[in-house]
Amino acid sequence: MQIVQVDAFAERAFEGNPAAVCLLTEFPSADWMQAVAREMNLSETAFLKRIEAGFELRWFTPEVEVDLCGHATLASAHFLWQSGELATSEDARFHTLSGLLVARRQNEWIEMDFPSEPPIESTAPTGLLEALGASPAFTGRNRFDWLVEVGSEAEVRSLQPDFQSLRELCERGVMVTSIAESEEFDFVSRFFAPAAGVDEDPVTGSAHCCLGPYWSAKLGKTELVGFQASQRGGVVRVRPQDDEARVILAGRAVTVLRAELMIDPF
Predict the structure, then answer these.
(1) Catalytic residue among 26, 39, 44, 130
(2) Does domain 120-240 match CATH 3.10.310.10?
């Protein structure tokens, strides 16, 4: 079976966040999919199965299955259009552990309709800020992750977290963010998820389900552009919806690898 690697939230190859995408006729065991994800050793591997109402989609890090992933959903939609599994005029409809997610093409960009996951102000657990090496202006969390706002982009970029401590303190991950110094972007961020097997994720779509509503409220803007300041880096456009329950994430994608998986899952 074919497996591809796509750089998501990337304008060109070797930027953004790489995800593997594998289209199956049936889902094998979760253990087998987890083993493939561990073999691919990317922050996420996506598994797709065509169903009558679209595609069932599951995401695995090298260590765990996750409930929501933005960049591997972007990569999956890109793969379906590029391979001809879907016409470019068709929406990609994904049935996931987080409900129905819809992706559509907008010229070179792919827009995705995701659940909004705003943070609730909360006191950080003991040791979290010390593990990050961060001085917070705000700490909060949603159902997945912690959010920590700091005072400057320079502080976001210079963080050198203690990943072993973060692994013990966070169920999934923590995003650190600040207002952007460049007029090109509204905010910057980094995302750390050692508990999920990813010390630093290059570009995290699901984190922007939280960052988008947070910065929209702070800046009074309904359309924002975020830059995730990892070593690879990537741009995410964010547009919170009026009902506050959904958020539109947009990015680009580039296929960098096509391969044939030689192991029979059944």
Answers:
(1) 44
(2) yes
